[in-house]
Amino acid sequence: MPLYLDNNATTALEPRVLEAMMPYLQSVYGNPSSVHRYGRLTRDAIEQARVQVARLAGAQPGQVIFTSGGTEANNLAINGPLAHRTPARLAVSKIEHASLMEAAKNLSHSGWQLDLIDVDASCRVIEEQLTSALHADTQLVSVMLANNETGVLQDIDKLAGLARDKGVLFHTDASQAAGKIALDFAASGVHLMTLSAHKMYGPQGAGALIADRSVELKPLISGGGQERGLRSGTENIAAIVGFGMAAELAMQGLQQRAEQLQALRDALVVALSQLDPVTLFAQDARRLPNTVQFAVDGFTGETLLMQLDRKGIAVSSGSACHSGQAEPSHVLLAMGINEMTARNAIRVSFGRENTAEDVKQMMDALNQIVNLKS
Fold it and tell me: Would residue 123 show up in a list of annotated catalytic residues for this protein?
């Protein structure tokens, strides 16, 4: 039976989300910028979705800027506040998603000095390293809330507080955390937060940047002035409506769902610990309830991924955005893992449809693969 265990890459579209989207793919098609009834209907739908996403994030609706996804939101978070400033310094953790890291590196080619913040062996940002990166001319810091590979959660409230004390803007990529743990933009002290719909059973092609009103943003895209002039282009109404519904559904039974996912995660960890030789990553850190990253000695991640795929089991060898590349995980290298072990890494990320039987199916397949080689 096919088994999907790659929910950190993307999730299945929730049927109720599709149901909410369908009218805006068929019969409700007005341009939200139009003043007639058709336009007002779609504008109202977008504003309702804005309220739903804001509730999920613990923010105000006016702080939600809809984008085409997490990648665009990350780029807006980096370039938006800094594009109009004189080049100075910015700091990001070494474990950021490529969409954030590449945006920061691009600024470094334009006169900005990029400081990379170290993490410890458990994928946790080293607070002293962040403090050292807060120079007098540092303008922005970005640290992701939940790492997409290891699942490790950062103490964002504390890290954001360190930046605020120095008058530095703080951004967090919460794409992997949303829908798995509770978010509170207002209480966290961050200035900017990235969300992505397809990580929580919403549609691909929809995301948001949550931005404090005090942050002056320069848009990446010029045009008709949609999203308060911060993201021009006729809105993808169906995707935004789906994002809103996914956000609303994610808040329902969040704690119970997290407990169910953690039970699966912990069962897999116990089973893997009995398989020799396996390396489990970041097991002593606070992590997402659904994520396990490990390596099997003697198998590269890509090799193991393909052998599991032949048995109908979908996992990941790292970030989906780097699928097919032979480079070792930059996250594991930042944790001090040697290159060979980093190349062997596999990520399992459970979703709400998974069961204890799926853990057994995964381990049966893995044992067959390992024993066949031995």
Answer: no
